[in-house]
Amino acid sequence: MNFWQYLSSRHQQLLTDAYQHASVVFQCMVVATLIGVVIGVVTYHSDWAGGLATTTTSTILTIPSLAMIGLLIPIVGLGVPPTVIALTLYGLLPIVRNAIVGLRGVDPALVDAAKGIGMSRPARLLKVELPLAWPPILTGIRVSTQMLMGIAAIAAYASGPGLGNEIFRGLASLGSRNALNQVLAGTIGIIILALLFDAAYVLIGRLTIPRGIRA
């Protein structure tokens, strides 16, 4: 059976795995974005706090993904929980770092002007600082998503969802006639999903970032 025949015979399962893969990455990115931006907002005023936040999230990223999921299994069990926790933690660093950089890069004169017209601290944050810091934050989200697309494949080790199951099945049956097809199908599927997500972020950037800021 060649690769195209394999895709034809397994397309329903592959589509299901692709949907699950995209869904878990998307949901984890939403959570990681909320947590990462909050951490950035809380820490960007202080060099010490910002450095601690960046160092902590950097340290998390150095933990091998297989080890992270393996350590989580005795605590939360198999399946979705260890996958979601691991992906959310891994997605934090680029978002936290870019949120801090973006917020620190806002022109203080604009913040002072907002303060001068009577804006409260929350209003300045929501209407001035975060919108101006959005381009680097979005870049961090894009980087995190690309990382998580690949890391999510390791979730198959913990019976998690996604295209990693296809890859693991192929690797476990090397030498069989469909082993290479399984690995290729899972790998190419993840690459396609990563490109689709990145294209979506480009569109979001064009819709949400004023042309003057993009320039």
Quick tags:
elongated, 0% strand, mainly alpha, 82% helix, 215 residues
Draw up the topology in text:
Elements: H1 3-43, H2 47-62, H3 65-76, H4 80-90, H5 92-104, H6 108-116, H7 121-151, H8 164-172, H9 179-208, H10 211-214
Write up what this structure looks like:
Helices cover 82% and strands 0% of the residues. It is mainly alpha-helical and 215 residues long. The longest helix is centred in the N-terminal third of the chain and has 41 residues, at 3-43. The mean pLDDT is 90.
Kindly name the structural category: mainly alpha
**Low-confidence spans:** none
Biggest β-sheet description: none
Rg (C-alpha, Å): 20 Å
Helix percent reads over 70%
Per the principal axes of the C-alpha atoms, what is the gross shape?
elongated
- The number of distinct helices, counting runs of at least 4 residues, comes to 10
- In total, the number of strands is 0
Mean pLDDT: 90
Distance between the termini: 51 Å
How are helices and strands ordered from N to C?
Answer: HHHHHHHHHH
Work out the strand percent.
under 5%
What's the short version?
The chain has 215 residues and is an all-alpha fold.
